[in-house]
Amino acid sequence: MENFTYYAPTYFVFGKDQESTAGTYVKRFGGSKVLIHYGGGSVVRSSLLDRVKASLAGEGIPYVELGGVHPNPRSGLVYEGIELCKKEQIDFILAVGGGSVIDSSKAIAAGSVYDGDFWDFYQGKPVTKALPVGTVLTIAAAGSEGSPDSVITYEDGQFKRGASGEALRPAFSILNPALTQTLPAYQSACGITDIMAHLFERYFTNTKEVEVTDRMIEGLLLTMVHEGPRVIADPNNYDARANIMWAGMMAHNNSCGVGRGQDWASHDIEHELSAQYDCAHGAGLAVVFPAWMEYNIDHDVMRFAQVATRVWGCSMDFANPKKTALEGIARFRAFLRSIGMPQTFEELGAKGEDIPAMAHKAVYGNGRSGSIGGFVSLSEDDVANIYRKML
Amino acid sequence: MENFTYYAPTYFVFGKDQESTAGTYVKRFGGSKVLIHYGGGSVVRSSLLDRVKASLAGEGIPYVELGGVHPNPRSGLVYEGIELCKKEQIDFILAVGGGSVIDSSKAIAAGSVYDGDFWDFYQGKPVTKALPVGTVLTIAAAGSEGSPDSVITYEDGQFKRGASGEALRPAFSILNPALTQTLPAYQSACGITDIMAHLFERYFTNTKEVEVTDRMIEGLLLTMVHEGPRVIADPNNYDARANIMWAGMMAHNNSCGVGRGQDWASHDIEHELSAQYDCAHGAGLAVVFPAWMEYNIDHDVMRFAQVATRVWGCSMDFANPKKTALEGIARFRAFLRSIGMPQTFEELGAKGEDIPAMAHKAVYGNGRSGSIGGFVSLSEDDVANIYRKML
After folding, report:
1. B61 within 8 A of B32, measured Cβ to Cβ
2. Helix, strand, coil: what percent of chain A each, to 5?
3. Nearest CA-CA distance, residue B220 and chain A, Å
4. Antiparallel, parallel or unpaired: β B63-66 and B92-97
5. CB-based contact A360:A368 (threshold 8 Å)
6. pTM (two decimals)
7. Residues A307, A311: Cα–Cα separation, whole Å
8. Burial class (CB in 10 A: 0-12, 13-18, 19+), B3
9. How far is A203 from chain B (nearest CA, A)?
């Protein structure tokens, strides 16, 4: 195991009706004037936004609002938010929504206390200071409610890039599984896929002797395999929603990723797809990840065989471990299909002719120098080959 | 799943040589004058204490020292520490040692900013304020390095009681697995048992639909089953020590215990043994836990069968699940025996004649009203029966 530091000081408030405590926690974490940041109509239609506002009003905390966050959140709205925060002397940002809203909030939080262009943080500058962010989560997926990360898509250039820094960990996050019950099945499945991808990005490592984090990751994957189909079959299954919601946070707060190399090439490869075609991130990952696995299986057949037996319930073929490893990937594909996820470029609306440009951007964009991935280092050609497997 | 809040803001610094950062983190978390609290000779002999002092001196942070913490830490030294902190205007406590040292440090931290008797907190008063505590951990066991709990034994009355409160979560904890390599096999095994007990206390629940925490607990148990025998066979196995150290923290920081009822009767039953006979807590748990399991198996045979199959690798006997459940307990017993743990009163130095008094104290002590346990509610008679199974 490698040396590491780990610090996850987010206060989690989990359970039914807990959005009514938003005002209490804004106060507890020092907010005196709040920007409420949200997306589209669903938080309005469901009256969630009204309940959150009432909670702030109940504590006598003034607020301004900025809605309009889209999936794959854009830099344009971030600039607008930063300007608003500076003008209104906002000292706390309350994100009401999913990963896109939270990531947009984090970008505004960092940009509001920075004199330069916030995009610097998405070009590699570490975030060391930001306004505190609270979240009221409405979809289990991105794990941004407990992570130090944010991903934003630049308005003009179709660049989708990440920023990171402990200052971006939310001060508090309110997780009410009931709020996710109104999600359409497709969005639920995208969330399930994203959570599993966060686990796999950590699982595929060259670090030896990481039994504790291997076992935690496998436990969380087994949870998703059990609970995922239950919420697709019955969107109102509160308990399945609750298990997925906590698993989604644990999958990305990095307690199961410490002390080990991680990969993240699949996320980089997917980001080009969702930046280019504005597809859902989870759907993109469903197409990318099995292809990435098949392409890299020979790098460490036994690791693929381990997850095949421990998570996918395959019998180990001791005479031919690669057969077991491949069977695991096949079961992952079948699982994704069973919850309604796409498997090809065509289903995503992506085009084969864009592969060379995307492969180039994936390995050279964001200050990269021609390769991505921690488990297997992938060149531009490798990435193009992986894209071609999705055709 | 039940509603819950979860807040674990300890900063973890994990890996080789990390004790040299103690001064940096004391400074970061606001310490300007430190009490270094420790136990006996081993931290002196290994020069760990010198390295920690050098680290404080390197940051120009003055300190006073208080050694002498014993296993099952006593109230007497806590009173001494509180007096010292008040006299010397200490604002940070640095625990260098294992769970006993950390628990004693937490008691001093709470008592130093409280006008009454610190023992009030161990009689049920919640701890809402305490000096910040940092830890340099030397044994993977109690999980106190990441928990809001402390257990102290009262000097006169052989009462061993717990206090709890978020203010008792350490500000930082330095976990260097190499520091645990010098532990005798018996102490290592006691630590392994304590960690597994923390997991089982959470596992045995009446709360339904807790797949995510079930799976996390099982993953951590599987880690202990794999790594435990490796450190007994080779005390210098750094990687096995590292996996156990992170598992020990995760087992008790409660991320795998949220949203579910827990039990803790086995700890209560054991505390009477270690208070009375001053045996090691882990050794006491090795005697208590299998007896508790056998006594309560009929309360939920399928839960015992689940852990038997998922953790102990038993084949499920679908015609007779209780047979599988019992086989799981038998394998747990064999595991404990294989790492050198005791299984009987005699091996602990405990006496059958004391059973009535201990059973009475277990269910009526610490403000309890005649029963203990969240999974099964145990009366005085039940506890006496469980003790008798250990004869």
Report:
1. yes
2. 55, 10, 35
3. 6
4. unpaired
5. no
6. 0.97
7. 5
8. middle
9. 14
**B30 — phi, psi (to 5°)?**
90, 10
Nearest chain A Cα distance for residue B91, angstroms: 22
Q: Which of B83, B45, B40 is nearest to B64 (CA)?
A: B83
What is the percent of chain A where pLDDT is above 70? 99
pLDDT at A344 exceeding the cut of 80 = yes
Instruction: Please give the Cα distance from A130 to A111 (Å, whole number).
Output: 7
What pLDDT shows up at residue B41? 82
B300 lies within 8 A of chain A by CB: no
Q: How confident is the model at residue B84 (pLDDT cuts 50, 70, 90)?
A: very high
Minimal Cβ distance to A227: which of B14, B211, B243:
B211
Is A5 close to B12, i.e. CB distance below 8 A? Answer: yes
Residue of chain B minimizing CA distance to A13: B5
Minimal Cα distance from B260: which residue of A? A243
| Topology given in CATH for the domain delimited by A11-180 | Rossmann fold (3.40.50)
Q: Does A369 touch chain B (CB under 8 A)?
A: no
Question: How many other C-beta atoms lie within 10 A of the C-beta of residue B320?
Answer: 12
On whether any CB of chain A is under 8 Å from the CB of B18, the answer is: yes
* CATH architecture of residue range(s) B185-388: Up-down Bundle (1.20)
Chain B touched by A316 (CB under 8 Å): no
Does B243 contact A at CB distance below 8 Å? yes
Query: Of A10, A209, A242, which has the smallest distance from its Cβ to B239's Cβ?
Result: A209
The predicted structure's pLDDT at residue A155: 82
| pLDDT tens readout for residues A254-313 | 999 999 999 999 999 999 999 899 899 999 999 999 999 999 999 999 999 999 999 999
Q: Do B223 and A242 touch (CB under 8 A)?
A: no
Does A167 touch chain B if contact means CB atoms closer than 8 Å?
no
pLDDT, average across residues A77-87:
98
Which tokens belong to A314?
């395959």
Q: Is B285 exposed, middle or buried (0-12, 13-18, 19+ CB in 10 A)?
A: buried
**A13 interface with B at CB cutoff 8 Å:** yes
Domain positions in chain B are 11-180, 185-388
Predicted local confidence at residue B161, as pLDDT: 87
Residue located via tokens 């007779």:
B320
Residue B386 contacts residue B380 (beta carbons within 8 Å) = no
